[in-house]
Design a protein that fits this description.
Elements lengths: L6 H4 L5 H14 L6 H9 L5 E5 L5 H7 L4 E6 L2 H10 L4 E4 L13 E6 L3 H4 L5 H9 L2 E12 L6 H11 L2 E6 L13 E7 L3
Parallel strand pairs: 1-2, 1-4, 2-3, 4-5
Antiparallel strand pairs: 5-7, 6-7
Length: 198
């Protein structure tokens, strides 16, 4: 793990992972739409693409991407979430790792990486640029990095944009939601499509 602990651990109590797992299990049982991020990513991918789900949590996004015919590797720092993903959404491969020090070698490059569900606001404070760099390092040239996070957290869009420039990611699109509502400065969510330079 990186030296600073991710906010996922420091901002919540010991029972947060259990609550989070049960929350998404309940949503799935109730028929909630848990695949919006996967639908967007699938529309941008070639068939049978390789996808890195960075911050894969309970595995809902990884599984929905895999269901669309792609090969997915999910990575999360929390072993409890990875265990739940393996139980609830078998198919993708899941790895316990800190995104700030991610090294999946000898894994081949991915066509795209997705950081959905507030991943960037849960990493260790000050590690966001390192996380983006490590994730981008696993994506092939001309591949995609797609992120989504709430705009009212400690990590704000201007800092994110500066970090993307610093690690060489090129901003192509930004939306206010995963279903492509137009971006505006007061949006509560920022969904960003980035390109790894060719």
């Amino acid at each position: 793990m990186s030296e600073a602990r991710p906010r996922w651990f420091t901002d919540h109590g010991d029972e947060h992972a259990s609550w989070y797992i049960e929350r998404f299990r309940t949503m799935a049982r109730e028929g909630a739409d848990l695949a919006g991020e996967a639908r967007l990513l699938d529309a941008m991918l070639p068939r049978a693409a390789r996808v890195l789900d960075a911050g894969s949590g309970t595995g809902r996004v990884a599984a929905a991407i895999a269901d669309r015919g792609h090969t997915v590797v999910g990575v999360d720092v929390d072993p409890a979430l990875v265990e739940a993903a393996r139980a609830d959404y078998p198919g993708p491969r899941y790895v316990v790792a800190d995104l700030a020090t991610l090294d999946l070698a000898p894994e081949p490059p991915f066509d795209a990486a997705v950081l959905a569900g507030n991943v960037l606001v849960f990493v260790a404070p000050g590690s966001e640029r390192q996380v983006l760099a490590r994730v981008a390092a696993h994506v092939r040239p001309d591949g995609l990095v797609v992120t989504g996070f709430a705009t009212d957290r400690a990590y704000r869009v201007p800092a994110f944009d500066a970090d993307c420039v610093a690690v060489g990611l090129v901003l192509e699109h930004r939306f206010a939601t995963w279903d492509l509502r137009p971006w505006h400065d007061d949006a509560s969510w920022a969904v960003t499509v980035l390109r790894v330079p060719a």
